[in-house]
Amino acid sequence: MNNKELADTFTLIGNLLEIKGEVIYKILAYRKAAETLVVYPRSVADTYKEGGQKGLKEIPGVGPAIAEKIEELLTTGKLEFLEKLKAEVPESLASLLQVPDLGPKKVKLFYDQLGIQTIEQLKAAAEGGQLAGLPGMGKKSEEKILAGLESMARRSGRTPLGDALPFAEEQMALLRKVSGVKRVEAAGSLRRRRDTVGDLDILVAAEDSEPVMEAFTSQPLVARVLGRGPTKASVEYNNGMRAQVWVHPPAKFGTALQYATGSKDHNVRLREIALARGFSLSEHALTRTDDSGEELHYATEEALYEALGLPWVAPELREDRGEVQAAQQNALPKLLTVKEIHAELHSHTTWSDGKQTVLEMAEAAIVRGRKILAITDHSYSLGIANGLTVERLKQQRADIEAARQQLGDRITLLHGTEMEIRADGTLDFDDDTLAWLDFVIASLHVSMRQPREQATQRLLNAIQNPHVDLIAHPTNRLLPDRAGADLDMDAVFAAALENGTALEINSNPSRLDLEDIYARRAAEMGIPIAINTDAHHESHMDFLEYGVANARRAWLTKDHVLNAWPEKKFLAWLHARGT
DNA sequence: GCCGTTTTCGGCCCGACTGTTTTCAGTCG
Fold first, then answer.
1. Is A525 near strand B, with its CB below 7 A from some atom of it?
2. The domain at A338-576 falls in which architecture?
3. CB of A220 within 7 Å of some strand B atom
4. N or C terminus: which one in chain A shows less Cβ crowding within 10 Å?
5. What are the pLDDT digits (tens) for A315-354?
6. Spelled out in words, what is the top-level CATH class assigned to the domain A1-89?
7. Are A316 and A335 in contact (CB under 8 A)?
């Protein structure tokens, strides 16, 4: 049982307990544990093997009861507690909680009164007008549930950052034009630059909220208004995305922005610090907990953090992964910036499935201030991408030489490859060919359903080849829905460290692979990280901001990142690897 | 159910909005 499956089990327990009507804090505890397990960068099974229940309890949010349940799940694959719970509350009721505006109380009500267990039964009952007559329900509530079912069918959960961010920027630009608006900022997971985003959270600073609400809810792209009060409104757009806007007076904007940015767990830490200093922290103010009840307002986040005795914490770090402790010790990392990247080590041209020539890509890299560009077209077994044979690789060398002549010292062109790691773990090129190339990437694209051991061994074969410099998009996941290869990441990292092989953060917003938690762990171990755009067109080079955002979420500084090393240091590293 | 630089027990998730109410329960973030 892997981390995700364990997490899903505890999420299910939380949901079933909620429908059952269990005290909220017990439910929150299960959910908290599930959240922690999902981002736990090691295999929980390994942690258990090494440290038993005691080891499990070192995981934040895991106490005696949950540790015991993890042990049972890992050793037997089943959980007595959950089986008993399912006998009381049918498992399918949990899926009903995903319907917007349908919570545990109503799910229970519908089940008790009408025996509704599935989405289909719910839809039929709502269409048949059977819900409206129930206690606490009315015509409008029934319509809301029907609308919720429709919108659920339309949208597919979380939106990749690469779709959400440009769309949100457009919406925010419109709000900036509203009279009286002083400031508009994204908040929530969008501002924290998570790889996928739920709803868009937008914060507006203005004294008068009414014009903002009017402008926000009457946009042509709005499909329906989900709610609209004096300071808060939410909408659903035609594309299925949802957004909510809060309006706060400029004098309180810092407190509000901090609150709305989250994460929830980061905010809990800040509240604890506030309490220790005699304040309670809300989205509106720091309020003295003594009799005076004095409220302190902050126009900027910097001022609020300062009032808590902390330096400002970059939004990408606010996940309660040690950033508050680091801030208290003045030990926050000096996070990587886009400007610090001056090499692109993964790009494609018309030689394989890219859309532009070597020269065009080089010019595009120069425009963006890159000093090094590696041309890394696919290798022949990726036939769908017109991968190169050894013979074509040699022809390409001539093309690259010609481009080098033309470009002079404006940029250093490296002739590389993105070599396929085949399904059986063998590589497309022999060692002589690899040694002849300037830069060698290896990656997976096919046979992604292999069992963990086989998939891992495949990757290890590439990492252990002394000519392979970098593993691109190591898991080959695709956002928002395709999980990557099932890999033993501990084994992958150990091998990469031993062989000095770099691992990639692929900046394409559909990939962002390595994901943040793994990139952080790899970098902490001392594995060099490369941040590449995998550009198939010059415009893709602008994906870099997503890769860097992901790197910042992984606490990376320029020292961790190959592309940010001084040119000489990078070339020396490459040379030492005996290319 | 978890957690602890004031507590091994008593906190922790509170405010905005909606709809069915008639003073409040449910949902959401």
1. no
2. Alpha-Beta Barrel (3.20)
3. no
4. N
5. 999 999 999 999 999 999 999 999 999 999 999 999 999 9
6. mainly alpha
7. yes
